[in-house]
Amino acid sequence: MQINFKELTILELFNNYPYARDFFSENFIPIEGLEHLTIDEALENIDEDIIEDRAINIEVFKVHLLEYIEMMKSFYTDEAIEAHNITILPGFYKDGSKENYDELEIKSGEIICIVGPTGSGKSRLLADIEWAANKDTPTKRTVLINGKTLETKERFSASNKLVAQLSQNMNFVMDLTVEEFLDLHASSRLVENKDDIIKNIFDKANDLAGETFKLDTPITSLSGGQSRALMIADTAILSKSPIVLIDEIENAGIDRKKALELLVSEEKIVLMSTHDPILALMGDKRIIINNGGIDKIVDTSDEERNILHKLEKLDKIMFNMRNKLRYGKKLEFEEEIENA
Ligand SMILES: Nc1ncnc2c1ncn2[C@@H]1O[C@H](COP(=O)(O)OP(=O)(O)O)[C@@H](O)[C@H]1O
Ligand SMILES: [Mg+2]
Description:
It is built from 14 helices and nine strands. By secondary structure, the protein is of the alpha/beta class.
């Protein structure tokens, strides 16, 4: 839910989002005496000399303020709905015919892959789960959480954190270091051993990312792969969401196997749409989507797991070569093959 900036006064803003006050003071925006004004009005009324002296860009500040509040909101309202299992009941293909399976139950600690041609309905299936569909999405599927449909209230509440989405890159514009970001999230969780948790997330994220970053690296300067790695480690360790949905992350430049292992070790349900055979075979099952419907549900066979070992070797070779390239080393194919 986006904040409507036009409506809120500064006072209302601070009352609703206490951490917004700190954001003003940290950015040296003197707001005292202007609290009765709306945010736009207040920012227009700040002394021009102060704005010039401190080189404040009001428009940029507004964007950052909004993003900061959205992030903090997502940290604080992260009240999880517990989900030990989800069940997907059949709906309809795009042509209106009924899906041909009984029901699909997925338990914590399971990885389910979703495969199928572009436009077939993979993202739609993920959205059905995110939405806890109740015959009210284009597929008319029903998604049960612990065997029951969710109440409308739970489904649409702003604090419903049934699902963590890893589909988009983080769009950081804020001026925070990795450590400050993790500290904010851990503080909102009220965890006891905050420093250990921050260290743990940081170490795991670095382990997932090919290129290392530091605790004092600004989050705005993380690469796509690094920020993805940070999000995955943060989600696995700090987010209470029991379900993680991943929409096509193949090119994210992270160690995908370790990423999945980390998520699953935290007893999450992982559903992931993918065209990547390594990811598809890492799943316990794969759902094959066609024409908007679940066409088949296939268990990963032992034979396929053997292929997976070979693909992983190839993948490791590619991963190592990419890193060698990055750090200016020479590539030697034979050596890479032997080491894999
Ligand atoms: N069973 C269905 N009935 C009606 N529309 C559907 C169904 N499944 C998917 N769609 C629609 O088809 C379009 C493509 O689906 P999408 O999930 O984006 O495909 P993919 O992610 O596999 O590329 C979307 O507009 C989606 O809402
Ligand atoms: Mg898609």
